[in-house]
Amino acid sequence: MKIWQLNDFNIQNLKNIDIDSPKILSDDEVLVEMKAASLNFRDLIMIDGGYGETGGKPPFIPISDGSGIVIEVGKKIKKFKKGDIVIPPFFKGWDSGNIKENTILLSLGGKIDGVMQEYIVFEEKNIVHAPKNWNCLEAATLPCAALTAWRTIVTEGKVNRNSIVLVQGLGGVSIFAIQIAKLFNAKVVATTSSEERMVIAKEIGADFVINYNEDKDWWKKVQEVTNRKGVDIVVEVGGSKTLQQSIKCSRVGAVIGIIGVLSGGMADLPIGRVIYKASRLIGITCGNKEELESMIGKFNTSEVKPIIDSTFKFEDLPNALLYMQKGTHLGKIIIDFDLE
Fold first, then answer.
1. Residue 3 confidence (pLDDT) above 80
2. What angle do CA 181, 187, 193 make, to 5 degrees?
């Protein structure tokens, strides 16, 4: 079978090679033919060695998010059958509860080989069913970005129809955050960079959209559109240049999910304001299998589908990564293993 292997850090050291296909060796295992993968900026960091000791040491198979079709099951398998579309969770072994000390070492696409391989053997406990009526390309988008948004908004934020959610930009996590918040009938305030993207944000479901290039102090606009109540939940992906504004436009007791560092990793923290507002700043590192299944269950009750920016062939993984590196995409970048 074909796999992509990172022999040393840097995209140029990715090699497409052939190895023997795996076989089921235990009655509680499932053989999956992988059909699709989706990319996250985290994959670029892993390939560049940016996670240090917590990342993988080459050689390893990259990319965390994928989906495939069950083609063989062990004798003890009860939850899955041939033909099922399945997804491996981002973390192998984080089944429920809060993240633990060594959980970070269990993510796919590093210390544990990722999904860029034609066949993978999984234990039954390490896969979940894809949403109903979703194909493999769609299902491959869920393990990282969507679940990060879910844990922020649902697990930590306890979203409900009275909630107001602030979403920054239109990256993968932020797009899913808008979609998830609207599944709970919450109000969504989104920030983005242009008039064109403002239109897209509204099409996705945002109730109010702010152009942060026009409104530099956009926190004031957020306060205005929320009648000075502030927001209940913040999907904080910006980092150093957005955190203070997120705190300013949040209500007392708001949950601020710290997810990304797009504008820098070091921020001045207004400690007095945080104390006064009893702000809950929570670092979000994706989510667990139980949350993934709950999210999929919610998607099964809706018409929501992921937004896909572009699709590349299996052989074009390096080009897909270089395209993501430009940062011009809107929606998920997909690798279609069947695309000729």
1. yes
2. 85
